[in-house]
Amino acid sequence: MNKIFFKTAFRNLLRNRANTGINLLSLTIGMTVSIVIFTLIKYQYTFDHYHTNADRVYRVNFVEKTQWGANYGSQTPEPLHKVLRTDYPQIEAVSRTIGPIETRVFIEEEKFDESKALFVDENYFQMFDQEWLRGNPEEAFSDPQAVILTESTAKRYFGDEDPMGQTIDFARRAKGVVRGIIVDPRLNTNLPYTMLANVAMMPKVQEFYVRNTWSITSMGTTWVLLPENVDPVNLASQFNDIVVNNLGDEAAETISFELGALKSLHTDDRYSGLNYTIPNDTIYGLLIIAFIVLATCTINFVNLSTAQVLKRSQEVGIKKIIGCAKSQLANQFFLELSIVTSIATFFSIWIAEVLLNEINEAMSVISIDLKLEMASILFAIGLGLILTFLAGLYPVGMLVNFKPLEVIRSKFTQVRGRKAVVRNTLLTVQFVVAQILVISVLIFNSQFSFIKNKDLGYDTKNIIGMGNFVPGGYRVDAALLNSAKSQLMESPFIENVTFGTGGPNAINPWNTTLVDPESTERIEVNCDFKHVDVNYAELFNLKVIAGKWFSAANYQSENREIVVTELALQKLGWDDPQSAIGRRVNINGYSDNATIVGVLADFHTDNLRNEIKPSVFEGDYSGYNQAFVKVKEGYYSEVAKHIDKVSASMNPDFVANYKSFTDEIAIDYEIDRTLFGFINATAILAIAIGCLGLYSLIAFVVQQKTKELGIRKVVGANTNSLVLLLSSKYIWLIAIATVIAVPFGFYGTREWLNSFVYQVEVSPLVFVSAFLLTILIALLSIGYRAFKAATANPVKALRYE
Prior knowledge:
Blueprint: H1 2-15, H2 17-44, E1 57-66, E2 69-73, H3 80-87, E3 93-107, E4 110-120, H4 124-127, E5 132-134, H5 137-140, E6 146-150, H6 151-158, E7 167-170, E8 174-182, E9 195-198, H7 202-205, E10 220-225, H8 232-237, H9 240-247, H10 249-252, E11 255-261, H11 280-311, H12 313-321, H13 326-362, H14 374-400, H15 404-408, H16 418-453, E12 463-467, H17 478-488, E13 494-500, E14 510-515, E15 525-532, H18 536-540, E16 544-547, E17 561-565, H19 566-572, H20 577-580, E18 584-587, E19 594-600, E20 615-619, E21 626-631, H21 636-650, E22 659-660, H22 661-667, H23 670-704, H24 706-714, H25 719-753, H26 765-790, H27 794-798
Helix pairs in contact: 1-13, 2-11, 2-13, 2-14, 2-23, 11-14, 11-16, 11-23, 13-14, 16-23, 16-25, 16-26, 17-21, 23-26, 25-26
């Protein structure tokens, strides 16, 4: 019996190979998208979950309330970890990590540019697991010069040579010794690294990162391991005493320390961590995309299966008359669906594996490692079983309830009637989903065009940045700096050169405060703070609206002079930029110590999600960790060669790390662009699946109306009227779908748009375009089949009447 069921199922599928192919294609697409998104979401929600003590590890976060909201930071003042160790015995362990930082590494005379060197203490190993290949944490970190290399880094540095005991020189400032080799960490971690080094070396490697002061949040991160009986919320509330005792009662009104659970750090985008973060809203968006595609495929599957049941109505009627049981009919139909979904599941798993590799390469900028693990395969199998049941429930219910005599007498059609309404409703829902996606794509595209064309208040084109071009630590030698600029400017392809602590929109800017000493009301204005050289404003084309930019004389003067943005003056309560020139302000808590010599027009200090912040610029030789070069259009490779030549003579330790300034800005929107790519692809797939289903349904309707169309042609109906007869209903269904989809599409994307302070205005033209686009595609899919039916010879339809 089972053999007969299988033979019959395969014969039916092959006999209706067009419908089978469409079902197989749509199911494969839907399941592939779902598997990819399931794998992606699982990856995002398992950051650092694999550590043994992950449930008990917390990061101490820094929160500061300001006039425009709250500043959230994952770095904390250097003395904090010492206080937590001595004054809070309920904490099981405290760890201080610095980095991962960029540093130059020397193995004898060979140099490497290391971008993920993480400096840790001995307690780090209590909180974060490693798989040790050589050495162990107890012995390794008894040495204050200990360095632990990942397997790939050890291979990169030493090849086949034994790395244990080898010396590693950090920027010619501190020497470490390799004391262990560990397996490369997973990429889904909040603390990515390629090497671990003892934090005891940090004062020599970069003293600026370990300044023992409460007034500066350095590059360090503080972690705590709590016993299971300690409430993190209650513990964090006690940290207010730390602020009061070390920064004062006034500071305690605006500054606080909070505890962030390790497992939730990755989805808390308030904090700029050491790896990218992804907000929960984005993950929910991916879930919605998966649901939409799956729902579209399922509706398509149900509609086509229903139509297939109706085409086989006479076969079912005869089987019932000769005594076939309902359970046998149901099993036969479910078997056919199971074969289709099984094949679709196999192909979707295979295609998903390929797509995941492509996504890994496409998103290499944020280092992602998506793999098709057993959980994803089990998800695919479970999804196939669920789809088989859901998609077969309604058609099988119809099939087993057929009345045999009506079927045999050919009185059973479903072009009209209650059950045809069900099919049309499903089709409408399918196009509602497609319309929502099309509207979302158009709005996303409008916002990205807005971002691309938005005037940021400074130039970004043809500018490259590079770190640590001039040797030196926190202070830079003026003669060396000027020599470097002169040599770089010898290239005819370089238009300008400047140095400073980051560009106008630095990702991790320095911060300071401005206070008007003449005001009776003390108002602290929090500002981005940048040390810059004399060419900075010219290279970035910053607009001076009052006073002047720095001149060479400023860098020799003992008086502290600053340039501020117009917004800083407004926050201080000063209305006229011109009257601010020459006025003195307190900067960074010091009394009456800086004179304003210039005012700049406001510019975007961050991406368009955030409001513009005030900025302060100081002309001195402090902290010049970045160089910026303005390149002539089309001469990037020539400029790179010239930079290499200059660095070889003046800074042999420099390793090329050029970054396009435009690309750095684009990184801020990488996750948004990825989401947009998903939605774009999903919209195309949803419309394609809908149109494939529509094509099959119009073929079914034509088959049901063959004789009607023949009679209409005989009595004088022309081709256009018959095409209109067949297609007009579907145009109305799409129109209804548009009306339903507009509010969902608008309010759905409004949530995303509201994450941007600066956003595009949504035009009604977006909704009109979505309707016309969907109508056009739908007409193309049904037009051919309708035209073919309308031009058929009526004699063939009526020859047996």
